[in-house]
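CORE FACILITY INTAKE
Project code: CF-77B
Contact: R.S. (postdoc)
Sample description: multi-component assembly, two entities in total
Requested service: structural model of the whole complex
Turnaround: standard
Below are the sequence entries exactly as provided by the requester. Do not edit them.
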Amino acid sequence: MYIDGLECSVYDREVFQELRDGGLACVTNTVAFWEDAGETMDEIGRWRDLARENADLITIARTADDIEAAHASGRTAILLGTQNSSPIEDRIRYVELFHDMGLRVMQLTYNNQNAIGGSCYEPHDSGLTRFGREVVREMNRVGMVVDLSHVGERTGIDAIEASEAPVAVTHANARSLYEHARNKGDDLLRALAENGGVIGLATYRNISGPWAESRETWCDMVRRTVDIVGLDHVGIGTDLSRKSGDRELQWMRKGRWTRTTQYGAGSAGNPGKAKPVEFMTSTRDFPALAECLTTHAGFGDEETAKIMGGNWMRFYRHVFKG
Amino acid sequence: MYIDGLECSVYDREVFQELRDGGLACVTNTVAFWEDAGETMDEIGRWRDLARENADLITIARTADDIEAAHASGRTAILLGTQNSSPIEDRIRYVELFHDMGLRVMQLTYNNQNAIGGSCYEPHDSGLTRFGREVVREMNRVGMVVDLSHVGERTGIDAIEASEAPVAVTHANARSLYEHARNKGDDLLRALAENGGVIGLATYRNISGPWAESRETWCDMVRRTVDIVGLDHVGIGTDLSRKSGDRELQWMRKGRWTRTTQYGAGSAGNPGKAKPVEFMTSTRDFPALAECLTTHAGFGDEETAKIMGGNWMRFYRHVFKG
Protein backbone atom coordinates (compact mmCIF):
# COMPACT_ATOMS: atom_id res chain seq x y z
CA MET A 1 0.00 0.00 0.00
CA TYR A 2 1.91 3.01 -1.31
CA ILE A 3 1.10 6.54 -0.16
CA ASP A 4 2.58 9.80 -1.38
CA GLY A 5 2.28 12.46 1.31
CA LEU A 6 2.41 15.43 -1.05
CA GLU A 7 2.38 16.23 -4.74
CA CYS A 8 1.80 19.48 -6.59
CA SER A 9 1.23 17.99 -10.01
CA VAL A 10 -1.13 19.40 -12.60
CA TYR A 11 -3.38 16.40 -12.79
CA ASP A 12 -5.14 15.00 -15.80
CA ARG A 13 -6.19 11.51 -16.78
CA GLU A 14 -2.65 10.60 -17.78
CA VAL A 15 -1.29 11.56 -14.37
CA PHE A 16 -4.14 9.67 -12.67
CA GLN A 17 -3.18 6.66 -14.76
CA GLU A 18 0.40 7.02 -13.52
CA LEU A 19 -0.93 6.85 -9.95
CA ARG A 20 -2.59 3.57 -10.81
CA ASP A 21 0.48 2.26 -12.64
CA GLY A 22 2.51 2.95 -9.53
CA GLY A 23 -0.04 1.20 -7.33
CA LEU A 24 -0.64 4.31 -5.22
CA ALA A 25 -3.35 3.87 -2.59
CA CYS A 26 -3.35 7.55 -1.70
CA VAL A 27 -1.82 10.88 -2.63
CA THR A 28 -2.27 14.35 -1.15
CA ASN A 29 -2.66 17.00 -3.83
CA THR A 30 -2.33 20.78 -3.58
CA VAL A 31 -5.47 22.85 -4.11
CA ALA A 32 -3.98 26.13 -2.85
CA PHE A 33 -0.62 27.90 -2.60
CA TRP A 34 -1.77 31.52 -2.25
CA GLU A 35 -5.42 31.13 -3.16
CA ASP A 36 -8.13 32.70 -1.00
CA ALA A 37 -11.34 31.01 0.14
CA GLY A 38 -13.27 31.53 -3.08
CA GLU A 39 -10.43 30.48 -5.35
CA THR A 40 -9.82 27.38 -3.26
CA MET A 41 -13.53 26.52 -3.44
CA ASP A 42 -13.28 26.88 -7.23
CA GLU A 43 -10.39 24.42 -7.16
CA ILE A 44 -12.14 21.97 -4.83
CA GLY A 45 -15.17 22.17 -7.11
CA ARG A 46 -12.97 21.47 -10.12
CA TRP A 47 -11.57 18.42 -8.29
CA ARG A 48 -15.10 17.13 -7.71
CA ASP A 49 -15.58 17.19 -11.46
CA LEU A 50 -12.18 15.57 -12.05
CA ALA A 51 -13.09 12.81 -9.59
CA ARG A 52 -16.44 12.18 -11.29
CA GLU A 53 -14.86 12.16 -14.75
CA ASN A 54 -12.11 9.76 -13.65
CA ALA A 55 -14.07 7.71 -11.14
CA ASP A 56 -12.53 4.51 -12.50
CA LEU A 57 -9.07 5.69 -11.43
CA ILE A 58 -9.45 8.00 -8.43
CA THR A 59 -11.77 9.08 -5.64
CA ILE A 60 -11.59 11.92 -3.13
CA ALA A 61 -11.10 10.49 0.36
CA ARG A 62 -12.43 12.00 3.57
CA THR A 63 -11.54 9.22 6.01
CA ALA A 64 -8.95 6.52 6.51
CA ASP A 65 -11.65 4.00 5.61
CA ASP A 66 -12.14 5.81 2.30
CA ILE A 67 -8.44 5.26 1.56
CA GLU A 68 -8.69 1.55 2.37
CA ALA A 69 -11.80 1.24 0.24
CA ALA A 70 -10.19 3.03 -2.69
CA HIS A 71 -7.18 0.74 -2.45
CA ALA A 72 -9.39 -2.34 -2.28
CA SER A 73 -11.23 -1.23 -5.41
CA GLY A 74 -8.04 -0.61 -7.38
CA ARG A 75 -8.32 3.16 -7.30
CA THR A 76 -6.20 5.93 -5.81
CA ALA A 77 -7.59 8.01 -2.97
CA ILE A 78 -6.94 11.73 -3.30
CA LEU A 79 -6.57 13.73 -0.10
CA LEU A 80 -7.34 17.38 -0.73
CA GLY A 81 -4.54 19.50 0.71
CA THR A 82 -3.30 23.07 0.70
CA GLN A 83 0.24 24.35 1.07
CA ASN A 84 -0.96 27.49 2.82
CA SER A 85 -3.63 28.63 5.24
CA SER A 86 -4.70 31.41 2.84
CA PRO A 87 -8.03 29.63 2.15
CA ILE A 88 -9.28 30.21 5.68
CA GLU A 89 -8.72 33.97 5.34
CA ASP A 90 -7.83 34.28 9.03
CA ARG A 91 -11.28 33.08 10.08
CA ILE A 92 -11.23 30.31 12.67
CA ARG A 93 -14.66 29.08 11.55
CA TYR A 94 -13.52 28.41 8.00
CA VAL A 95 -11.34 25.52 9.22
CA GLU A 96 -14.45 23.49 9.97
CA LEU A 97 -16.17 24.58 6.75
CA PHE A 98 -13.21 23.61 4.55
CA HIS A 99 -13.09 20.32 6.41
CA ASP A 100 -16.75 19.91 5.46
CA MET A 101 -15.74 20.49 1.83
CA GLY A 102 -13.22 17.68 2.12
CA LEU A 103 -9.96 19.48 2.92
CA ARG A 104 -7.82 17.11 4.98
CA VAL A 105 -4.32 18.60 4.95
CA MET A 106 -3.32 22.23 5.50
CA GLN A 107 0.20 23.59 5.68
CA LEU A 108 0.25 26.41 8.22
CA THR A 109 2.36 28.71 6.05
CA TYR A 110 3.75 28.56 2.56
CA ASN A 111 6.91 30.58 1.86
CA ASN A 112 5.94 33.75 3.75
CA GLN A 113 4.96 34.79 7.23
CA ASN A 114 1.23 34.87 7.76
CA ALA A 115 -1.13 35.40 10.70
CA ILE A 116 -0.49 31.85 11.91
CA GLY A 117 3.27 31.72 11.94
CA GLY A 118 6.63 32.10 10.23
CA SER A 119 7.91 30.44 7.08
CA CYS A 120 11.19 28.64 6.54
CA TYR A 121 12.29 31.46 4.22
CA GLU A 122 11.60 34.38 6.56
CA PRO A 123 14.65 36.05 8.12
CA HIS A 124 12.82 36.00 11.46
CA ASP A 125 10.28 33.43 12.55
CA SER A 126 7.43 34.78 14.68
CA GLY A 127 6.75 31.39 16.15
CA LEU A 128 3.20 30.09 16.30
CA THR A 129 0.98 33.14 16.88
CA ARG A 130 -2.04 33.57 19.14
CA PHE A 131 -4.29 32.90 16.15
CA GLY A 132 -2.01 30.06 15.09
CA ARG A 133 -2.65 28.25 18.37
CA GLU A 134 -6.38 28.56 17.79
CA VAL A 135 -6.03 27.18 14.27
CA VAL A 136 -3.95 24.18 15.37
CA ARG A 137 -6.48 23.40 18.11
CA GLU A 138 -9.35 23.71 15.62
CA MET A 139 -7.57 21.49 13.08
CA ASN A 140 -7.11 18.92 15.85
CA ARG A 141 -10.78 19.13 16.71
CA VAL A 142 -12.13 18.66 13.20
CA GLY A 143 -9.47 16.16 12.10
CA MET A 144 -7.21 17.94 9.62
CA VAL A 145 -3.51 17.24 9.12
CA VAL A 146 -1.28 20.07 10.38
CA ASP A 147 1.51 20.23 7.78
CA LEU A 148 4.79 21.93 8.75
CA SER A 149 6.78 21.41 5.55
CA HIS A 150 7.40 25.04 4.47
CA VAL A 151 6.86 26.33 7.99
CA GLY A 152 9.66 28.02 9.94
CA GLU A 153 11.58 25.94 12.47
CA ARG A 154 10.41 27.78 15.56
CA THR A 155 6.79 27.91 14.41
CA GLY A 156 7.03 24.22 13.61
CA ILE A 157 8.32 23.28 17.05
CA ASP A 158 5.63 25.49 18.63
CA ALA A 159 2.97 23.77 16.54
CA ILE A 160 4.13 20.31 17.58
CA GLU A 161 3.91 21.39 21.21
CA ALA A 162 0.52 23.01 20.71
CA SER A 163 -0.99 20.11 18.81
CA GLU A 164 -2.86 17.38 20.64
CA ALA A 165 -2.82 15.21 17.53
CA PRO A 166 0.29 14.06 15.67
CA VAL A 167 1.44 16.51 13.00
CA ALA A 168 3.21 15.99 9.69
CA VAL A 169 6.01 17.29 7.56
CA THR A 170 4.51 16.05 4.32
CA HIS A 171 7.43 16.90 2.02
CA ALA A 172 10.90 17.77 3.30
CA ASN A 173 14.12 16.12 4.34
CA ALA A 174 16.39 16.19 7.37
CA ARG A 175 18.54 19.30 7.50
CA SER A 176 21.33 17.40 9.21
CA LEU A 177 21.57 15.28 6.08
CA TYR A 178 21.24 18.16 3.60
CA GLU A 179 21.48 21.77 4.68
CA HIS A 180 18.59 23.68 3.11
CA ALA A 181 16.04 26.17 4.52
CA ARG A 182 13.25 23.82 3.45
CA ASN A 183 14.65 20.91 5.45
CA LYS A 184 14.02 20.21 9.13
CA GLY A 185 16.39 20.20 12.07
CA ASP A 186 16.82 17.08 14.15
CA ASP A 187 15.22 18.71 17.22
CA LEU A 188 12.03 19.37 15.32
CA LEU A 189 12.02 15.91 13.77
CA ARG A 190 12.50 14.20 17.12
CA ALA A 191 9.68 16.25 18.66
CA LEU A 192 7.50 15.37 15.66
CA ALA A 193 8.23 11.67 16.19
CA GLU A 194 7.56 11.89 19.93
CA ASN A 195 4.16 13.33 19.10
CA GLY A 196 3.42 10.41 16.74
CA GLY A 197 4.00 12.38 13.57
CA VAL A 198 5.41 11.46 10.18
CA ILE A 199 7.87 13.13 7.81
CA GLY A 200 7.34 12.44 4.13
CA LEU A 201 10.78 12.42 2.52
CA ALA A 202 10.97 14.39 -0.70
CA THR A 203 12.57 13.35 -3.95
CA TYR A 204 12.49 17.02 -4.95
CA ARG A 205 15.98 17.66 -6.32
CA ASN A 206 16.49 21.10 -4.74
CA ILE A 207 16.12 19.82 -1.20
CA SER A 208 17.74 16.39 -1.66
CA GLY A 209 21.21 17.61 -2.66
CA PRO A 210 23.69 14.80 -3.27
CA TRP A 211 21.19 12.17 -2.10
CA ALA A 212 19.32 12.79 -5.36
CA GLU A 213 22.12 11.28 -7.37
CA SER A 214 20.53 7.84 -7.64
CA ARG A 215 17.76 5.72 -6.25
CA GLU A 216 20.34 3.99 -4.10
CA THR A 217 21.76 7.17 -2.59
CA TRP A 218 18.25 8.46 -1.91
CA CYS A 219 17.42 5.17 -0.15
CA ASP A 220 20.56 5.68 1.88
CA MET A 221 19.07 9.01 2.96
CA VAL A 222 15.90 7.21 4.02
CA ARG A 223 18.00 4.86 6.15
CA ARG A 224 19.82 7.80 7.73
CA THR A 225 16.54 9.56 8.44
CA VAL A 226 15.13 6.44 10.08
CA ASP A 227 18.19 6.49 12.32
CA ILE A 228 17.23 10.03 13.41
CA VAL A 229 13.45 9.77 13.89
CA GLY A 230 12.69 6.06 14.04
CA LEU A 231 11.13 3.64 11.60
CA ASP A 232 7.53 4.50 12.49
CA HIS A 233 7.88 8.15 11.58
CA VAL A 234 9.24 8.12 8.04
CA GLY A 235 7.12 8.10 4.91
CA ILE A 236 7.32 9.34 1.36
CA GLY A 237 6.28 12.85 0.20
CA THR A 238 7.78 13.18 -3.24
CA ASP A 239 6.70 16.79 -3.96
CA LEU A 240 6.25 15.57 -7.55
CA SER A 241 5.08 18.30 -9.91
CA ARG A 242 4.05 16.39 -13.02
CA LYS A 243 2.95 18.64 -15.89
CA SER A 244 3.58 21.73 -13.82
CA GLY A 245 5.17 24.43 -15.97
CA ASP A 246 6.64 27.90 -15.66
CA ARG A 247 3.26 29.52 -15.10
CA GLU A 248 2.67 27.30 -12.06
CA LEU A 249 6.26 27.80 -10.88
CA GLN A 250 5.92 31.59 -10.97
CA TRP A 251 2.60 31.40 -9.11
CA MET A 252 4.15 29.19 -6.43
CA ARG A 253 7.14 31.45 -6.01
CA LYS A 254 5.66 34.90 -6.49
CA GLY A 255 1.93 34.54 -5.88
CA ARG A 256 0.58 38.07 -5.67
CA TRP A 257 3.03 39.27 -3.06
CA THR A 258 5.97 40.47 -5.14
CA ARG A 259 7.05 41.82 -8.51
CA THR A 260 10.66 40.74 -8.07
CA THR A 261 12.29 37.48 -9.09
CA GLN A 262 11.96 34.72 -6.53
CA TYR A 263 13.78 31.39 -6.55
CA GLY A 264 11.79 29.36 -4.03
CA ALA A 265 13.88 26.33 -3.12
CA GLY A 266 16.18 27.15 -6.04
CA SER A 267 18.73 29.97 -6.27
CA ALA A 268 20.16 32.56 -8.65
CA GLY A 269 22.46 29.87 -9.97
CA ASN A 270 19.59 27.40 -10.23
CA PRO A 271 16.63 29.56 -11.16
CA GLY A 272 14.29 27.33 -13.20
CA LYS A 273 12.13 24.38 -12.39
CA ALA A 274 14.27 21.61 -10.94
CA LYS A 275 14.48 18.55 -13.15
CA PRO A 276 12.81 15.59 -11.47
CA VAL A 277 15.26 13.05 -10.11
CA GLU A 278 15.79 10.21 -12.57
CA PHE A 279 14.40 7.55 -10.28
CA MET A 280 11.12 9.42 -9.58
CA THR A 281 9.85 11.06 -12.74
CA SER A 282 6.32 9.92 -11.95
CA THR A 283 4.57 7.73 -9.41
CA ARG A 284 5.23 4.79 -11.73
CA ASP A 285 8.58 4.68 -9.94
CA PHE A 286 7.10 3.79 -6.54
CA PRO A 287 7.48 -0.01 -6.85
CA ALA A 288 11.15 0.30 -7.81
CA LEU A 289 11.69 2.59 -4.81
CA ALA A 290 10.16 0.01 -2.50
CA GLU A 291 12.33 -2.65 -4.05
CA CYS A 292 15.45 -0.55 -3.51
CA LEU A 293 14.60 0.09 0.14
CA THR A 294 14.64 -3.67 0.62
CA THR A 295 17.45 -4.80 -1.63
CA HIS A 296 19.81 -1.85 -1.29
CA ALA A 297 19.01 -0.15 2.02
CA GLY A 298 18.38 -3.40 3.83
CA PHE A 299 14.90 -2.75 5.17
CA GLY A 300 12.79 -5.83 5.83
CA ASP A 301 9.49 -6.21 3.99
CA GLU A 302 7.45 -4.94 6.92
CA GLU A 303 9.80 -2.04 7.43
CA THR A 304 9.58 -1.07 3.76
CA ALA A 305 5.79 -1.33 3.91
CA LYS A 306 5.72 1.14 6.79
CA ILE A 307 7.91 3.64 4.93
CA MET A 308 6.06 3.29 1.63
CA GLY A 309 2.62 3.88 3.11
CA GLY A 310 1.94 2.10 6.39
CA ASN A 311 3.14 4.96 8.54
CA TRP A 312 0.99 7.50 6.68
CA MET A 313 -1.99 5.18 6.98
CA ARG A 314 -1.57 4.84 10.74
CA PHE A 315 -1.13 8.61 10.99
CA TYR A 316 -4.26 9.35 8.92
CA ARG A 317 -6.27 6.90 10.98
CA HIS A 318 -5.20 8.77 14.10
CA VAL A 319 -5.76 12.32 12.78
CA PHE A 320 -8.97 11.91 10.76
CA LYS A 321 -12.13 11.51 12.74
CA GLY A 322 -14.95 9.16 11.80
CA MET B 1 -44.43 16.87 14.79
CA TYR B 2 -44.48 20.59 14.00
CA ILE B 3 -42.30 22.06 11.27
CA ASP B 4 -41.89 25.71 10.32
CA GLY B 5 -40.78 26.00 6.69
CA LEU B 6 -39.17 29.40 7.06
CA GLU B 7 -38.21 31.93 9.68
CA CYS B 8 -35.91 34.92 9.55
CA SER B 9 -35.60 35.44 13.29
CA VAL B 10 -32.50 36.73 15.03
CA TYR B 11 -31.92 33.65 17.13
CA ASP B 12 -30.59 33.45 20.64
CA ARG B 13 -31.16 31.04 23.48
CA GLU B 14 -34.53 32.60 24.29
CA VAL B 15 -35.77 32.09 20.73
CA PHE B 16 -34.43 28.52 20.75
CA GLN B 17 -36.36 27.97 23.97
CA GLU B 18 -39.49 29.22 22.21
CA LEU B 19 -38.94 26.58 19.53
CA ARG B 20 -38.90 23.96 22.24
CA ASP B 21 -41.90 25.44 24.03
CA GLY B 22 -43.83 25.22 20.77
CA GLY B 23 -42.75 21.61 20.24
CA LEU B 24 -41.08 22.39 16.91
CA ALA B 25 -39.32 19.41 15.35
CA CYS B 26 -37.72 21.52 12.64
CA VAL B 27 -37.38 25.07 11.41
CA THR B 28 -35.58 26.50 8.39
CA ASN B 29 -33.60 29.63 9.26
CA THR B 30 -32.17 32.30 6.97
CA VAL B 31 -28.38 32.56 6.75
CA ALA B 32 -28.33 34.90 3.74
CA PHE B 33 -30.46 37.57 2.08
CA TRP B 34 -27.81 39.40 0.02
CA GLU B 35 -24.67 37.90 1.52
CA ASP B 36 -21.92 36.58 -0.71
CA ALA B 37 -20.07 33.28 -0.31
CA GLY B 38 -17.67 34.45 2.37
CA GLU B 39 -20.30 36.28 4.41
CA THR B 40 -22.58 33.26 4.25
CA MET B 41 -19.74 31.02 5.40
CA ASP B 42 -19.22 33.41 8.32
CA GLU B 43 -22.90 33.00 9.16
CA ILE B 44 -22.87 29.22 8.79
CA GLY B 45 -19.80 29.13 11.02
CA ARG B 46 -21.59 31.30 13.57
CA TRP B 47 -24.50 28.85 13.49
CA ARG B 48 -22.13 25.97 14.21
CA ASP B 49 -21.13 27.79 17.36
CA LEU B 50 -24.75 28.56 18.24
CA ALA B 51 -25.62 24.89 17.80
CA ARG B 52 -22.76 23.78 20.04
CA GLU B 53 -23.60 26.36 22.68
CA ASN B 54 -27.28 25.36 22.66
CA ALA B 55 -26.91 21.66 21.97
CA ASP B 56 -29.54 20.85 24.60
CA LEU B 57 -32.17 22.74 22.57
CA ILE B 58 -31.21 22.57 18.88
CA THR B 59 -29.09 20.75 16.32
CA ILE B 60 -28.29 21.49 12.69
CA ALA B 61 -29.91 18.85 10.48
CA ARG B 62 -28.52 17.57 7.20
CA THR B 63 -30.97 14.73 6.53
CA ALA B 64 -34.57 13.78 7.18
CA ASP B 65 -33.26 11.22 9.67
CA ASP B 66 -31.49 14.03 11.52
CA ILE B 67 -34.86 15.78 11.90
CA GLU B 68 -36.49 12.62 13.24
CA ALA B 69 -33.59 12.09 15.64
CA ALA B 70 -33.74 15.68 16.88
CA HIS B 71 -37.47 15.34 17.47
CA ALA B 72 -37.00 12.04 19.30
CA SER B 73 -34.42 13.64 21.58
CA GLY B 74 -36.62 16.61 22.41
CA ARG B 75 -34.61 19.09 20.36
CA THR B 76 -35.39 21.24 17.36
CA ALA B 77 -33.63 20.53 14.08
CA ILE B 78 -32.42 23.63 12.26
CA LEU B 79 -32.27 23.49 8.47
CA LEU B 80 -29.81 26.04 7.15
CA GLY B 81 -31.46 28.05 4.42
CA THR B 82 -30.86 31.15 2.33
CA GLN B 83 -33.41 33.52 0.82
CA ASN B 84 -31.16 34.23 -2.15
CA SER B 85 -28.66 32.48 -4.39
CA SER B 86 -26.08 35.21 -3.73
CA PRO B 87 -23.90 32.77 -1.71
CA ILE B 88 -23.06 30.70 -4.77
CA GLU B 89 -21.74 33.79 -6.58
CA ASP B 90 -22.93 32.46 -9.95
CA ARG B 91 -20.64 29.43 -9.68
CA ILE B 92 -22.36 26.12 -10.35
CA ARG B 93 -19.78 24.24 -8.27
CA TYR B 94 -20.56 26.22 -5.12
CA VAL B 95 -23.99 24.55 -4.90
CA GLU B 96 -22.33 21.27 -3.98
CA LEU B 97 -19.85 22.96 -1.63
CA PHE B 98 -22.55 24.83 0.28
CA HIS B 99 -24.48 21.58 0.48
CA ASP B 100 -21.33 20.09 2.02
CA MET B 101 -21.41 22.91 4.57
CA GLY B 102 -24.95 21.96 5.47
CA LEU B 103 -27.08 24.33 3.38
CA ARG B 104 -30.35 22.55 2.63
CA VAL B 105 -32.71 25.26 1.34
CA MET B 106 -31.96 27.98 -1.22
CA GLN B 107 -34.40 30.51 -2.60
CA LEU B 108 -33.51 31.15 -6.23
CA THR B 109 -33.98 34.91 -5.97
CA TYR B 110 -34.74 37.32 -3.20
CA ASN B 111 -36.44 40.60 -4.16
CA ASN B 112 -34.40 41.37 -7.28
CA GLN B 113 -33.57 39.77 -10.60
CA ASN B 114 -30.35 37.79 -10.53
CA ALA B 115 -28.48 35.49 -12.91
CA ILE B 116 -30.88 32.65 -12.12
CA GLY B 117 -34.22 34.31 -12.63
CA GLY B 118 -36.72 37.05 -11.88
CA SER B 119 -38.16 38.17 -8.57
CA CYS B 120 -41.78 38.74 -7.63
CA TYR B 121 -41.08 42.49 -7.37
CA GLU B 122 -39.44 42.95 -10.79
CA PRO B 123 -41.57 44.73 -13.41
CA HIS B 124 -40.48 42.04 -15.90
CA ASP B 125 -39.62 38.46 -15.07
CA SER B 126 -36.82 36.93 -17.15
CA GLY B 127 -38.04 33.44 -16.44
CA LEU B 128 -35.58 30.79 -15.36
CA THR B 129 -32.30 31.58 -17.15
CA ARG B 130 -29.79 29.25 -18.81
CA PHE B 131 -27.71 29.33 -15.65
CA GLY B 132 -30.87 28.95 -13.58
CA ARG B 133 -31.65 25.63 -15.23
CA GLU B 134 -28.17 24.42 -14.38
CA VAL B 135 -28.59 25.51 -10.76
CA VAL B 136 -31.96 23.77 -10.37
CA ARG B 137 -30.53 20.57 -11.85
CA GLU B 138 -27.51 20.79 -9.54
CA MET B 139 -29.73 21.41 -6.49
CA ASN B 140 -31.75 18.35 -7.49
CA ARG B 141 -28.57 16.31 -7.79
CA VAL B 142 -27.09 17.22 -4.43
CA GLY B 143 -30.42 17.30 -2.57
CA MET B 144 -31.19 20.92 -1.77
CA VAL B 145 -34.67 22.46 -1.51
CA VAL B 146 -35.47 24.82 -4.40
CA ASP B 147 -37.44 27.62 -2.74
CA LEU B 148 -39.65 29.84 -4.93
CA SER B 149 -41.15 32.12 -2.29
CA HIS B 150 -39.84 35.54 -3.43
CA VAL B 151 -39.29 34.31 -6.97
CA GLY B 152 -41.23 35.75 -9.90
CA GLU B 153 -44.25 33.84 -11.17
CA ARG B 154 -42.83 32.93 -14.56
CA THR B 155 -39.45 31.95 -13.14
CA GLY B 156 -41.27 29.89 -10.53
CA ILE B 157 -43.33 28.00 -13.07
CA ASP B 158 -40.20 27.43 -15.19
CA ALA B 159 -38.37 26.10 -12.14
CA ILE B 160 -41.16 23.67 -11.31
CA GLU B 161 -41.01 22.37 -14.87
CA ALA B 162 -37.21 22.19 -14.85
CA SER B 163 -36.96 20.46 -11.49
CA GLU B 164 -36.87 16.69 -11.27
CA ALA B 165 -37.47 16.86 -7.52
CA PRO B 166 -40.44 18.49 -5.81
CA VAL B 167 -39.89 22.18 -5.08
CA ALA B 168 -41.19 24.43 -2.32
CA VAL B 169 -42.71 27.79 -1.64
CA THR B 170 -41.49 27.95 1.94
CA HIS B 171 -43.31 31.15 2.98
CA ALA B 172 -46.10 32.70 0.95
CA ASN B 173 -49.86 32.49 0.49
CA ALA B 174 -52.24 31.99 -2.41
CA ARG B 175 -52.68 35.12 -4.50
CA SER B 176 -56.27 34.18 -5.31
CA LEU B 177 -56.98 34.47 -1.59
CA TYR B 178 -55.00 37.67 -1.01
CA GLU B 179 -53.66 39.74 -3.89
CA HIS B 180 -50.02 40.56 -3.20
CA ALA B 181 -46.85 40.35 -5.33
CA ARG B 182 -45.35 37.98 -2.78
CA ASN B 183 -48.22 35.52 -3.07
CA LYS B 184 -48.55 32.76 -5.67
CA GLY B 185 -51.06 32.26 -8.44
CA ASP B 186 -53.20 29.16 -8.58
CA ASP B 187 -51.52 27.93 -11.77
CA LEU B 188 -48.13 27.92 -10.08
CA LEU B 189 -49.53 26.30 -6.93
CA ARG B 190 -51.23 23.53 -8.87
CA ALA B 191 -48.04 22.84 -10.84
CA LEU B 192 -46.12 22.80 -7.56
CA ALA B 193 -48.57 20.25 -6.13
CA GLU B 194 -48.42 18.08 -9.25
CA ASN B 195 -44.66 17.96 -8.85
CA GLY B 196 -45.02 16.83 -5.21
CA GLY B 197 -44.12 20.19 -3.71
CA VAL B 198 -45.29 22.02 -0.60
CA ILE B 199 -46.29 25.60 0.12
CA GLY B 200 -45.61 26.84 3.62
CA LEU B 201 -48.38 29.29 4.47
CA ALA B 202 -47.14 32.49 6.07
CA THR B 203 -48.54 34.25 9.10
CA TYR B 204 -46.62 37.34 7.97
CA ARG B 205 -49.16 40.14 8.26
CA ASN B 206 -48.24 41.97 5.04
CA ILE B 207 -49.03 39.00 2.83
CA SER B 208 -51.96 37.57 4.81
CA GLY B 209 -54.26 40.60 4.47
CA PRO B 210 -57.63 40.13 6.14
CA TRP B 211 -56.88 36.47 6.94
CA ALA B 212 -54.48 37.78 9.59
CA GLU B 213 -57.34 39.08 11.67
CA SER B 214 -57.50 36.09 13.96
CA ARG B 215 -56.27 32.54 14.35
CA GLU B 216 -59.67 31.39 13.11
CA THR B 217 -59.64 33.49 9.93
CA TRP B 218 -56.08 32.38 9.20
CA CYS B 219 -57.14 28.74 9.61
CA ASP B 220 -59.96 29.49 7.19
CA MET B 221 -57.27 30.55 4.74
CA VAL B 222 -55.49 27.23 5.29
CA ARG B 223 -58.74 25.43 4.49
CA ARG B 224 -59.20 27.50 1.31
CA THR B 225 -55.61 26.81 0.27
CA VAL B 226 -56.09 23.09 0.77
CA ASP B 227 -59.07 23.36 -1.57
CA ILE B 228 -56.74 24.80 -4.23
CA VAL B 229 -53.63 22.60 -3.94
CA GLY B 230 -54.72 19.56 -1.98
CA LEU B 231 -54.14 18.43 1.57
CA ASP B 232 -50.72 16.87 0.88
CA HIS B 233 -49.18 20.09 -0.36
CA VAL B 234 -49.87 22.60 2.40
CA GLY B 235 -47.57 23.26 5.34
CA ILE B 236 -46.62 26.14 7.59
CA GLY B 237 -43.92 28.74 6.83
CA THR B 238 -44.56 31.52 9.30
CA ASP B 239 -41.83 33.92 8.12
CA LEU B 240 -41.48 34.78 11.80
CA SER B 241 -38.84 37.43 12.48
CA ARG B 242 -38.35 37.25 16.23
CA LYS B 243 -35.94 39.86 17.59
CA SER B 244 -35.34 41.23 14.11
CA GLY B 245 -35.16 45.02 14.22
CA ASP B 246 -34.85 47.99 11.89
CA ARG B 247 -31.24 47.23 11.03
CA GLU B 248 -32.22 43.76 9.81
CA LEU B 249 -35.29 45.17 8.01
CA GLN B 250 -33.19 47.71 6.12
CA TRP B 251 -30.66 45.03 5.15
CA MET B 252 -33.45 42.77 3.88
CA ARG B 253 -35.06 45.53 1.88
CA LYS B 254 -32.07 47.53 0.65
CA GLY B 255 -29.09 45.19 0.87
CA ARG B 256 -26.30 46.93 -0.99
CA TRP B 257 -28.26 47.52 -4.14
CA THR B 258 -29.96 50.87 -3.48
CA ARG B 259 -29.75 54.13 -1.58
CA THR B 260 -33.47 54.82 -1.89
CA THR B 261 -36.26 53.85 0.46
CA GLN B 262 -37.65 50.38 -0.15
CA TYR B 263 -40.78 48.89 1.39
CA GLY B 264 -40.36 45.18 0.67
CA ALA B 265 -43.74 43.55 1.23
CA GLY B 266 -44.94 46.76 2.89
CA SER B 267 -45.81 50.05 1.21
CA ALA B 268 -45.49 53.83 1.59
CA GLY B 269 -48.57 53.73 3.78
CA ASN B 270 -47.17 50.79 5.74
CA PRO B 271 -43.44 51.41 5.80
CA GLY B 272 -42.15 49.85 9.03
CA LYS B 273 -41.76 46.33 10.26
CA ALA B 274 -45.13 44.60 10.23
CA LYS B 275 -46.41 43.74 13.68
CA PRO B 276 -46.58 39.97 14.11
CA VAL B 277 -50.11 38.59 13.97
CA GLU B 278 -51.54 38.15 17.46
CA PHE B 279 -51.91 34.41 17.20
CA MET B 280 -48.28 33.82 16.09
CA THR B 281 -45.94 36.06 18.01
CA SER B 282 -43.52 33.20 18.50
CA THR B 283 -43.39 29.47 17.80
CA ARG B 284 -44.99 28.97 21.21
CA ASP B 285 -48.24 29.50 19.31
CA PHE B 286 -47.87 26.36 17.18
CA PRO B 287 -49.93 24.02 19.41
CA ALA B 288 -52.84 26.47 19.50
CA LEU B 289 -52.67 26.75 15.71
CA ALA B 290 -52.88 22.97 15.39
CA GLU B 291 -55.80 22.94 17.80
CA CYS B 292 -57.61 25.60 15.77
CA LEU B 293 -57.11 23.69 12.51
CA THR B 294 -58.98 20.82 14.12
CA THR B 295 -61.63 22.54 16.20
CA HIS B 296 -62.34 25.53 13.99
CA ALA B 297 -61.35 24.59 10.44
CA GLY B 298 -62.57 21.03 10.78
CA PHE B 299 -59.43 19.14 9.83
CA GLY B 300 -59.12 15.63 11.21
CA ASP B 301 -56.17 14.80 13.44
CA GLU B 302 -54.22 13.18 10.61
CA GLU B 303 -54.99 16.06 8.28
CA THR B 304 -53.82 18.59 10.86
CA ALA B 305 -50.66 16.55 11.41
CA LYS B 306 -49.87 16.73 7.71
CA ILE B 307 -50.33 20.49 7.60
CA MET B 308 -48.42 21.14 10.81
CA GLY B 309 -45.34 19.16 9.75
CA GLY B 310 -46.07 15.82 8.07
CA ASN B 311 -46.10 17.25 4.57
CA TRP B 312 -42.77 19.03 5.08
CA MET B 313 -41.31 15.83 6.50
CA ARG B 314 -42.41 13.79 3.49
CA PHE B 315 -41.06 16.51 1.21
CA TYR B 316 -37.68 16.67 2.97
CA ARG B 317 -37.37 12.90 2.87
CA HIS B 318 -37.87 13.05 -0.88
CA VAL B 319 -35.55 15.98 -1.59
CA PHE B 320 -32.66 15.28 0.76
CA LYS B 321 -30.36 12.46 -0.21
CA GLY B 322 -28.88 9.97 2.23
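Facility notes:
- Chain A has a mean pLDDT of 97.
- Chain A has twelve helices and nine strands.
Invoice: internal transfer
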